[in-house]
Design goal:
Strand content: 5-15%
Structural class: alpha/beta
Oligomer: single chain
Largest sheet: 4 strands, parallel
Number of strands: 4
Helix content: 55-70%
CATH topology: Rossmann fold
CATH class: Alpha Beta
Low-confidence stretches: 111-115
Order of helices and strands: EHEHHEHEHH
Radius of gyration: 15 Å
CATH architecture: 3-Layer(aba) Sandwich
Number of helices: 6
Distance between the termini: 40 Å
Length: 140
């Protein structure tokens, strides 16, 4: 069995621009993968939904199962009743809820990618989150 830790990513989806929200989650997943973790990016179901639409609650059945199997949850900032519900589930299950990528790196107990490459990726991600908030009128 793998020692790779699984990190579920909870983030806004329906509030604001869904495409921007999906992009931010994919960016976070890419960084977590670079850190040595195994990210679960549930907003990838956005593309599945385009082909085979399902009701909103049916996605949460799958999300709950993913959270149960994950080692931690990363909560990306922004208003989201769905992501807030996922945080509650993680807390009920005793899973750590992390609020930034540095906390994820510490949780994974991996040495972050060397210097500038990782710093640039993390800065770009944080800039994308700020831009998402600005475009969509979210407060910081």
């Amino acid at each position: 069995m793998s020692d790779t830790k699984v990190v579920y990513i909870a983030s806004p989806y329906t509030k604001g621009d869904a495409a921007v929200n999906v992009r931010v989650q994919i960016d976070a997943a890419d960084i977590i993968l670079d850190m040595g973790g195994a990210p679960i990016a549930p907003l990838l179901s956005h593309f599945w939904h385009l082909v085979h639409p399902r009701d909103y609650e049916s996605w949460f059945i799958m999300d709950r199962a993913f959270i149960e199997r994950s080692d931690a949850l990363l909560r990306i900032p922004g208003p989201s009743s769905g992501a807030d519900r996922e945080v509650i589930w993680a807390e009920e299950l005793g899973k750590p809820v992390l609020h930034d990528l540095m906390a994820v790196g510490l949780f994974l107990q991996e040495t972050l990618m060397a210097g500038e490459v990782m710093a640039n990726k993390m800065n770009a991600f944080e800039a994308n989150v700020r831009l998402m908030h600005k475009i969509q009128g979210f407060s910081a």
